[in-house]
Task: structure prediction
Amino acid sequence: MAVVPASEQSDENVALLFFRKALGFAGDDVGEHVFNTFLALSSLGNIIVTTYTAARMKQEIAKQGFIPFPKFFAQNVDVSIGRLILHLRKTRGWGLRWISAQQHQEPTPVGALLLHLVSCAFLILATNGVPPGESYGYGLLAGLMAYLTSAWFGVFIALGILILRIWGPPAADASQAGGCFDSQPGSQAADPHVPKTWGEMVNGSVYGWLSVICACIYLLGNAFPLIASWVPATARFARGTAAWWVVPVAGWAVLGFASLWWLSFVVVAKYRENYQKEKLVYEVYPEFEWADPAGGVSSSEDTQERRRVGGKILIHETVLIAWEGGEMGMFDPPHSSGGAK
Result:
């Protein structure tokens, strides 16, 4: 406000004006070049975070068995630089000896990343040759992204948190959970044969009332654009964009297609159960560990402090999806004592 007068803020990009005026002493184009550099770095950071998040989301969808070839899209594969270094050392006898290969090894959701790559390439090709801001171009895709991946997912996440807090999730069998039922210090010992909810599994490490308050705020904040998008935009806010109804209609069409896909999945499962005498078995085996709290408390003698401050985190999850034939009897899932992979 001190650098850019209020009379100029409604005409151009405020951030660009700020850099032009603040760095004008260095030349006419220096401020614009600095602004564009920061903008490019910010965009790069956003792309990296979005790629990481979207790949994990696609991987979780594949774990539910809702898309074809779920095993390929759900599994993790080690394609890290650490594995490459170990391969070079084994086959060539050399390979960056001063680097610890084990510290640079990490499984990656390769299938989900490939699916994300294909979807991104489709969106890029769909807007090829369309100037930014034009109707049905970049502005439309940006609006759909905000409507679907931000607002709607935010509403679903908030509702999911509230449902888990109010009604609770289905109980899990502690004998299948790979040691995640370690009792909280000062509490009664956990019985490995008594089913417990996820809330009981992390007893004392999170505050229930805080998650409810945050979920309500998050729900209201994300529900507002879903409702406001059905209000026609005035001429002041509709410059160079598609018609006001295109984004919500297209968003609901995508959600409708996803709902039909899910319903068809349920119908096929019911058909195979009723007519082919096959039952869909879906089992999840989570594995938890106590997280290291902020500050680096991680030694074995500080276990109680880690439990009190750090809480539990999900480190691994084994998902079993199979069709059980009626003549096979009751399916007996594998018991995991330290981790089925």
Summary: The longest strand covers residues 312-325. The radius of gyration is 26 Å. The chain is about 50% helix and 10% strand.
